[in-house]
Design goal:
single chain, 416 residues, alpha+beta, Beta-Lactamase, Hypothetical protein af1432, seven-stranded antiparallel beta sheet
Length: 416
């Protein structure tokens, strides 16, 4: 009877986990949750996810409680590392064959196996990988979309122990269900990027890499800001999921601005700049018939991401942004500006200063940081600046991953 009760509890838990995953909209937030829940189900210390893109395995997410803590951001999440889909690596073998792997000690593999363990991350981080459980991520149509790897099952005293056959069965079932949610989130991301590419036809500066960077900066800034404020993990998870997507849509209103302004190769005069200010209003109007929390946050960010902490921003306080004739109002200040917009304001300015534009060269990183510090309490919320400086290594990793040109150097990820 106890055994039956245990099975029922496990099935109930799995169903609850899958219900949570179905609610997550953003791809990166989903990968974070898939990895977290997989680790909870098997009591694993660490893990990573590879997603298949362009016929290779793209290193997409990493957790490691020993090195990074249970809820910390880390720069390795944004590594641009890829692996071929072949039998030489552990992840490549799983992706190619569709078979799961369960290894008690990756440093003592039989010599006749086709794959090997890459210990470069262990050497770099002084971590010791022992047990490993890797399973394919499949869609409902049995298409393999990635590989989920878990590292070091934990026994008493947090000592690494082998995974069990029960862990393997649970993870295979979980991965099959999670694969379908990942495919759905990838479709959502692609739709958003297509919208951005549509804007890029009008505004050459509004590129996919720019919006990916701003979205990732904003998500990581929010996580640190929220943790500094002591917000619950559940609240952080929900808002971070929405913020990543909403931040990517911050400049969608530029599609309503004239090409003569958007494509001008030099700076704007005062009249042109005044016209440009209205992109915030046009963007917010796109979400005026809000049907979800995502719509609400997207409208808040589009409207307010050029407001300033000291009240000198735009478009200011407006009673009705949907009027035929809208006049810009007195600037919002301080916490009158929604936190999501205060975060995107910093993320957007940081990216603009450090990126080459048609009318300027990028500033060196040191000068960008100096500007951000100087503008704390003026342009930017001081708490958001503090969060930014605390995770600067993560910010740099995001910048490296989503370059306009292919990256020339990479962080060393957990390559297994």
């Amino acid at each position: 009877m106890d055994r039956l009760s245990g099975h029922v509890d496990l099935v109930t838990r799995l169903l609850a986990v899958m219900e949570e995953l179905y609610q997550v909209k953003d791809l990166d937030a989903l990968l974070d949750q898939v990895l977290l829940q997989a680790r909870c189900l098997t009591n694993a210390d660490a893990g990573s996810i590879y997603i298949i893109e362009n016929q290779v395995l793209n290193f997409s997410y990493i957790h490691n409680d020993t090195l990074f803590g249970a809820a910390d951001s880390n720069k390795y999440t944004y590594s641009g590392h890829t692996l071929p889909i072949d039998v030489k690596s552990l992840a490549g073998y799983v992706a190619l064959t569709g078979e799961s792997l369960m290894l008690d000690d990756v440093y003592h593999l039989p010599p006749d196996l086709p794959f090997t363990f890459n210990k470069s991350f262990d050497e770099l981080s002084d971590y010791r990988t022992r047990s490993l459980l890797a399973v394919p991520l499949r869609t409902s149509r049995e298409k393999i979309v990635g590989v989920l790897e878990l590292i070091n099952a934990l026994g008493e005293g947090r000592q690494a122990v082998p995974f069990t056959n029960r862990d393997r069965l649970i993870l295979n079932y979980f991965a099959d269900k999670a694969g379908a949610t990942i495919e759905r989130a990838r479709l959502t991301r692609e739709i958003i990027l297509r919208m951005i590419r549509m804007c890029e036809l009008r505004d050459p500066e509004e590129t996919g890499p720019h919006t990916n960077r701003v979205g990732a900066y904003a998500a990581e800034l929010y996580r640190r800001w929220a943790r500094n404020r002591g917000l619950s993990q559940e609240e952080i998870r929900l808002n971070r999921d929405l913020l990543r997507i909403a931040a990517m849509l911050h400049d969608l209103g530029k599609i309503a601005i004239s090409d003569l302004i958007l494509k001008k190769p030099t700076g704007l005069d005062s009249e042109e700049f005044n016209t440009m200010k209205f992109h915030t209003i046009y963007g917010a109007r796109l979400f005026q018939n809000a049907t979800s929390d995502l719509d609400v946050m997207s409208a808040e960010i589009a409207l307010n991401h050029h407001e300033r902490w000291d009240g000198s921003g735009y478009p200011g306080k407006i009673d009705d942004i949907c009027r035929d004739q809208v006049r810009l109002g007195e600037g919002k200040r301080g916490e009158e500006i929604p936190i999501a917009a205060r975060i995107v304001a910093l993320a957007d300015v940081y990216d603009a200063l450090g990126t080459k534009r048609s009318y300027k060269d990028p500033l060196p990183e040191g000068e960008v940081l100096e500007h951000i510090r100087e503008q704390s309490g003026r342009h930017f919320d001081p708490e958001v600046v503090r969060a930014f400086l605390e995770i600067h290594d993560v910010i740099l990793a995001i910048k490296e991953k989503y370059q306009e040109e292919p990256p020339t150097s990479l962080f060393c990820p957990l390559t297994l």
